[in-house]
Amino acid sequence: MENIVFISGLSGTGKSTLKNYFDENPIDGFLVYDFDKGKEKCPKDENKHYEWRTKQTDYWLQVADENLKNSLGTVIFGLCREPGYIIQSAINNSLDVSKLKFAYLITESDERKKRLFDRGTPHHWQGEKAWYKEFYQQLEDAGAKEFDSSNKKIDYLAEEIIKWLIK
């Protein structure tokens, strides 16, 4: 099934781990990407992140459109723009919005903190920010599927995602 799938989540929820898993265990009919490794380089200045996420999201929609023309689905792991923006950008670029799917990863707060510290990125731990709830609500409003990565082995979580992708 050729879809454009954005799988989002906060740092430490398992996005990169899943992306790497799918690099080694490809999903038939899908190409998998890391949102951060697109056309635009991630700025060091946090005040420029929103603009960067906008440009990066538009770039990935172009890549996904090319993949669709080759009968391939696209899965993008990363903290992208909100679904409303993605849907509007797809419409503006004459993409079939029925091909868009959204999901997000969550992890228990203590486990997410431990993951971030264990991997050497404690600066990514900033507790729970006010915008998280709004972002998750926008994902839910767009029909996004929630995947809880708390205390799950990567192959089990990957299988849950594959089942969702191909249904």
Domain count: the total is 1
DSSP E strands, number: 5
The protein's oligomeric status is single chain
Give the CATH level 1 class: Alpha Beta
Q: Output mean pLDDT.
A: 90
CATH architecture: 3-Layer(aba) Sandwich
The coarse overall form would be: globular
Unreliable residue runs: none
- Helix-strand string: EHEHEHEHHEH
At CATH level 3, the topology is: Rossmann fold
**Spatial order of the strands forming the largest sheet:** 2-3-1-4-5
CATH superfamily (homologous) name: P-loop containing nucleotide triphosphate hydrolases
Helix content: 40-55%
Q: What does the model show?
A:
It is a single chain. The protein has 167 residues and is an alpha/beta fold. The chain has a single domain, classed as 3-Layer(aba) Sandwich (Rossmann fold). It contains 6 helices and 5 strands; from the N terminus they run βαβαβαβααβα. It has helices spanning 15-24, 49-69, 83-92, 109-118, 130-141, 154-166, and strands at 4-9, 30-34, 73-77, 100-106, 145-148. Strand 2 (30-34), helix 2 and strand 3 form a beta-alpha-beta unit. The longest helix is centred in the middle third of the chain and has 21 residues, at 49-69. The mean pLDDT is 90.
